[in-house]
Amino acid sequence: MTTASPAEAAPGTPTVAVLGTGIMGSGMARSLLRGRLPVRVWNRTRSRAEPLAAHGATVADTPEEAVRGADVVLTALNDGRSVAETLTTATPGLRPGQVWLQTSTVGLDATTDLVHRAAGLGLVYLDAPVSGTKQPAEQGTLTVFVAGPSSARATALPVLDAIGHRTVWAGEEPGAATRLKLVANTWVINMVNSVAECLNLAEGLGVDPQLFLDAMKGGPLDTPYLQGKSAAVLSGDLSPSFALSTALKDARLILDAAGACGARLDLVAASAERFTRAEAAGRGGQDMIATYYAGRPA
Fold first, then answer.
1. What is the rounded distance in angstroms from the CA atom of residue 29 to the CA atom of residue 287?
2. Rounded to two decimals, what is the model's pTM?
3. CATH fold label, 16-173
4. Is 126 in contact with 132 (CB distance < 8 Å)?
């Protein structure tokens, strides 16, 4: 059974099946709907997809139902295994020539596997991990890294324009965008742990953290990220824009890629250890700045 609340679509726009309506998938679905694209959504826990019906999405019971007849299949799931399992379930509804916009961060090995699966099904695979968190996904201001055949660009462009303010084409070969995303996430992961450690040391030394933030404000070392993540800790609002457990997953993917190419990433290794401690303390579902709690003075 589907739940439908049809939106008025602009002529010639592609129908999009969004598989996975967590933080990122639901935000991208809303952005697509604002762009007047017909959208079908599916999530393993249906209740997480149902609110999108009020915005005009059709809620499907199965991945197969969601993808049948769609022009673009957009996956926004947690990891490579989830993507592969969902694709298997969707297979009876797929047809050769559909564009598969794979936005999940799954790492290099999983990307290779998914590319092979797409080829076996006749799908046009676009390796398209997104850079951004909850608010950019909701606002349609993500940065999308894309690699894949240029022949798919015309079909994918309305989708990319709806979910992001910028598309970075990394090349024709799938995998190039995933490599770029791993580099970008290295910066994010190390930065969030740097913010956490500054707050940890300030607390340990008896320095008012707001005094530290004020000292940085407006200077060359200040960033919106420093101010925003620090504000989340100081206010106690750790609602996830990017969950700590997801950041840990990405840190492990980065370390796997570094090991394969011979790069030594001491900071990411230390970040992964902090994330692991915070997750073990029950912080995995909170925003990744909850890594702060892995380093508080005793």
1. 21
2. 0.93
3. Rossmann fold (3.40.50)
4. no
